[in-house]
Design goal:
Helix content: 10-25%
Strand order of the largest sheet: 1-10-8-9-7-2-5-6
Mean pLDDT: 87
Largest sheet: 8 strands, mixed
Number of strands: 10
Radius of gyration: 20 Å
Order of helices and strands: EEEEHEHEHEHEEHHE
Length: 234
């Protein structure tokens, strides 16, 4: 039967996988990502909490007081309330004291004996601990950023599409934490994470694949690095 010329043509379904778009010279804003159905694989929370607080007089950042409890507990809570699980916590400086004084129940606690080498060693230890867990991605956060709450974590977590996902929070267009690394990326990140560079090498190499999720309206990405910064914990 010939087509009815009065009937409009059928709509073409929109593309569903923004992460497979052609590479661009700069990261893609989250607003440009088309809706997609994420995998059922869990997004694990990976908290880097090994720092010794050198500029804080050797006070481990995990044990800094915040709202009456060790700072590490707040960071764990934020990951959980943001929808991450399981939560792995990498300890280093004064690890035994942190285990004794902080409530890390329900977390997988990872000891990093090489914590003094920098963030890269903690990232490697944390990613290694996630091998075999079935997690589709690791959402990495830092213990000394209490201005980043559960809403920022949830936004970045929702950017997960597959084990190849690469996403990060942004603040006024500048990349920050948390950062989400799909499981397919862990081996390369571990191979290039040295010193305090963390995952920077991987992020620079794959900048065109990075999805930025603006979080400046719900979080503040300051660090607790110096004695002057301690006022933010009051």
């Amino acid at each position: 039967m010939p087509a009815d010329p009065s009937r409009p043509p059928a709509a073409v379904p929109p593309e569903r996988s923004a992460l497979r778009a052609a590479p661009a010279p700069s990261p893609s804003p989250a607003s440009a990502v088309a809706p997609a159905v994420a995998s059922a694989a869990p997004v694990a929370g990976l908290l880097l909490a090994a720092g010794g607080g050198r500029r804080l007089g050797g006070r481990p950042k995990a044990l800094l007081p915040y709202r009456g409890r060790p700072l590490v507990e707040n960071a764990v809570r934020v990951l959980r309330e943001g929808g991450c699980g399981p939560v792995h916590v990498v300890l280093g400086a004064s690890a035994a004291d942190v285990r004794e004084r902080a409530d890390l129940s329900g977390c997988v606690v990872v000891d990093n004996p090489d914590w003094a080498e920098g963030m890269g060693s903690s990232l490697r230890a944390g990613l290694a601990s996630l091998a075999g867990t079935g997690a589709g991605a690791a959402l990495v956060s830092l213990v000394d950023q209490p201005g980043i709450g559960a809403e920022a974590v949830a936004r970045v977590r929702r950017a997960y599409r597959s084990p190849a996902t690469l996403a990060a929070a942004s603040y006024g267009g500048e990349r920050g934490h948390p950062v989400l690394f799909g499981a397919d990326r862990w081996a390369d990140i571990a191979a290039t994470a040295e010193g305090d560079r963390g995952a920077r090498v991987h992020l620079v190499r794959h900048a065109a694949e990075l999805v930025l999720v603006e979080c400046g309206d719900v979080a503040e990405a300051y660090d607790i690095d110096t004695p002057a910064d301690l006022a933010r914990l009051a």
